Amino acid sequence: MTTVSMTVNGKKVSADVAPNTLLVQFIRDNLRLTGTHVGCDTSQCGACTVHVNGDSVKSCTMLAAQAEGADVTTIEGLAKNGELHPMQAAFKENHGLQCGFCTPGMIMSAVDLVKRNPNPSEETIRTELEGNICRCTGYHNIVKSVKAAAENMGG
Amino acid sequence: MSVENGIGASVRRKEDQRFITGNGHYLDDMNRAGQAYGYFLRSPYAFAKIKNIDLSAAKSAPGVVDIFTGADMVADGIGGLICGWGITSKDGSPHKAPPHNSMAVDAVRHVGDQVAFVIAETLEQAKNAAELIEVGYEVLTPVTNIAKALAPGAPQIHEEAPGNLCYDWELGDKAAVDAAFANAAHVSKIDLVNNRLSPNPMEPRAALGEYDAGSGELTLHTTSQNPHVARLIMSAFLGIAPENKLRVVAPDVGGGFGSKIFVYAEETTTIWAARKINRPVKWTADRSEAFLTDAHGRDHVTHAELATDNDGKILAFRVSTKANMGAYLSTFASAVPTYLYGTLLSGQYKIPSIYCEVQAGFTNTTPVDAYRGAGRPEATYVVERMMDTAAKDLKMDPTEFRLKNFIQPDAYPYETPVIMTYDSGDYPLAMNLAKEMIDYNGFAARKAQSEANGKLRGIGVAAYIEACGIAPSAAVGSLGAGVGLWESAEVRFNPTGSVTVFTGSHSHGQGHETTFAQIIADKLGVPIDSVEVVHGDTSKVPFGMGTYGSRSLAVGGSAIVKAVDKIVEKSKKIAAHLMEASVEDIEHEHGVFSVAGTDKKLTMGEIAFAAYVPHNYPADLEPGMAENAFYDPLNFTFPAGTHIAEVEIDPATGVVDIVDWAAADDFGNVINPMIVEGQVHGGVAQGIGQALLEGVIYDEESGQLLTGSYMDYCMPRADDLPNFRVATTNTPCPSNPLGVKGCGEAGAIAGPAALMNAIVNAIGKDIDMPATPEKVWRAINSN
Amino acid sequence: MYSFDYERPSGVNEAASAIGEDDKFLAGGQTLIPTLKLRLAQPGKLVDLSGISELKGISVNGSELSVGAMTRHVDVADSADVKSAIPALAQLASHIGDAQVRNRGTIGGSISNNDPAADYPAALVGLGATVHTNKRSISAEDFFVDLFETALEDGELVTKVTFPIPEKAGYAKFPNPASRFALTGVFVAKTASGVRVAVTGAGPCVFRQTDMEAALSSNFSPDAVSGIKTEASGLNADIHASADYRANLITVMAARAVKAAS
Hints:
Chain B is of the alpha+beta class and 783 residues long. Chain B has 20 helices and 28 strands. Chain B has a 7-stranded mixed sheet, with helices on both faces. Chain B has a 5-stranded mixed sheet with strand order 7-15-14-13-8, sandwiched between helices.
């Protein structure tokens, strides 16, 4: 066992876990934050995307131990004081989701995307979402959502 | 008077709030006290006899609770998985449905076939123990390709199916077709492969089984599109438990596309094992297991011929198809290449005679069943590639050839030679709209511009039709279905005026919680936020058939309308009593009941309250306000339309760039245009995936799955796809009270044919799907 | 994943002494962790290098760009120093994997794995870089030995990579449609010591295309390479592309890399 401590959604958490515990397992099983999903086992679908120290990462491809001391944000931590993050609001407004399974990871990636590209073109959005797979929407409305959110976020 | 958030409004989805905040409840999000974890040991071989299984070392591994094999289930009297649709061969014999045990008993027949179920305190412990199981295999030579499996001398996969033949089926008038071909001025021919696909909903399948030793009740939470059907099959055919002791719940389900219709081995084993060990058991597939065991789609090989006269009129159509069923017959597998395929071969065209024959066979591959569109994409692909080929042979513009042969708007009801009665439509309208949307007439100039830039450009049309709203029971029953295909609904008012709608349909991305609530808001004037839609729990909702075949709104929505009609009828009686008028004088509009010719009125909420607080009620009025209904439609629905794709191809690499896409679809009336557009986008994306990117590949020698992860199976990503132009035309469906036709599958049906026609148009040569860069490059560079 | 021990040293020497025969260094983990998840490796211990600050960072010293082994792809892609010294290297790094992978993956981890479809090997060989370890310096061409095989000895650890700054360089990649790794990628550099053309993805290991180097030496233009074919025998063939197709891609990507060179 190894002790891991980190800040998740603004709250300090600590637990003894086996060294082979993935960050996503720590988030889902230890913290019971089940909005972060697992959709593949080869690090491609992006359903498990969270922010570690502000950067989007695939939490299925990172050990919990590697997040020691880090500041982690999951989909549950995105809305502030009961108010949706502009990206969440944009996904709802623009029908950027259907079954909702890829959505938390897609939104977390999109937030990071806009952080890096405050005023993204459609092409940039499509390219930068390479690490997230959606099977329902055909991406049309996801692209629209990200563009709308970027505008609302003051890009 | 129009209603806020009523029919026709693009209401933002009610279910989104929980999904965008991470508060959805998907199956793997659930855990139970005392839960153990299940893991399947799977066959590494495509075909082998099992000589022995030694569990001794594994059973004593740390954390192991128990390990079961197929023999344990057989000893417990658990039956095999079934196929629910009987197909009759040309010679009158029933299709061959060899035994399909949840876990292998004497042989494994595809890579990934279940061999043992290991249950341990943790998943890692279960996996560790599985590695200690020793299985003695006698490895046999597999066959994965359907044409080879049906050829003489192929390995024999099941003794119950000689020559690996499941059935040899036919539809249509062979003599009439032969005669028409004999006298035809032109005969066009085409050979096609419809590539095998893996559905890949983003949520992998999962199951959580619980047993209550006190009540004897079993509860299975599972990723299902139709929990009632799952319960029926598990109860009636497998003998897991009587229906009254078996509850099946499908919570939030992360996509299905058909693959979660079927009753699978893993879910069945999980619920059975929960009772065996008297503890909750959870099994969650990882993506590798999903590739190996989720039923695949398509996998047809087809030869087709079209006879035409000198005026470009179609005389007859002849189609011969070989369909791969995989290693076992999945739940609805037999229906897909027959009644969901052959019956759609008339497309949108007036074709005097059609003959279709289909040989379905077994191979050492994952079972194949319905995947988005199920049979209808395969039919449309054959029809629409055929139309382009014929138009080219006749030196006609492909849209002119189609327009010349379309069934005309005044021809309904129209009976096709392949036993369908089309009820409504306007095919020229949709085609002309799509042409306008994409500026079809300006294509030549755009092509010239591309050529000047060293690129090839092509445009491709697909005029598709589908039979949706899968029902009616009498029709499907006469064609071999083992179940009826109606739908159920209950509309229950709470005393304070809010409404709970119970539906036998199931939403796994389609937005029923919003669309169905819109029907209530529209018809009964209840604010949409006061309407709760409940689905997916056999202990809550009346028996229903579930969601597939674009049927939820047409059939499930119509059941809700029927229940609403009963609510209105009862409310009129209460209103009459309360307002001291006769029932005949009560008028109703959007939840307001008034006495004709007066200003007296009551709202639905007031009436509902009175129904639950029936002070001063006459004896003949029943208290309460809840009505249920079962709806069985008169016919299938027939969504149809035209999609046009435009591509630009880089001849140096063969890369296809989709530069434009226009979809003009007739879905009948539309409840929520935003959701409908989203369904079209998603369907087209899967169609593009099939045409350009996706394909399940097996190593023909070893039978190993070579596309077993996202490293090798190419899923469409954002940068693979274009924006879509989407529009609808509307000829209301006469067969259901909402006038709706269904929209979920259209894009997946039209997409592949439109895109492949565009690519063939650009390069001037036929190629098969998926049109990978290398295939396109080779075609361009071949003589 | 099988169970393993985990250690996170803070210095290179400490890391080197922590590693045993059955153990593995953990850099960004973007290949190693998926490998462990699929139970394709069973190390006794993972030695996490992320706590070693001396392995991180980018600097320019005169005619040389230095990138620490634990520098992430995103840091290379976004670095003003890299963009000005070797823009092609920044561009290459910006297309490795996807955004999330670039936020974790490192140059040291990538080259130590030597995946035949990785991008960085093309840059290292194309630019004539030097790989520095805790024991020695190795030329890139000597470092990449064969399929998933490098010159690294047991317990040897990449500390940094130094790139001579070229006159101009360009990279063009044809991604595998499914995995997005390089089906074929060509890195072209015009350097003080001549033109170098390195090919990744097409063969079992990164290699130099010397015919193209010769042609570009006299005429550094896309036309100079567009007629040069690569022998297909020996190239990779799999379900995604035949050797013939990869050979074609070498020619096409080389011309595009030359065109893009800056």
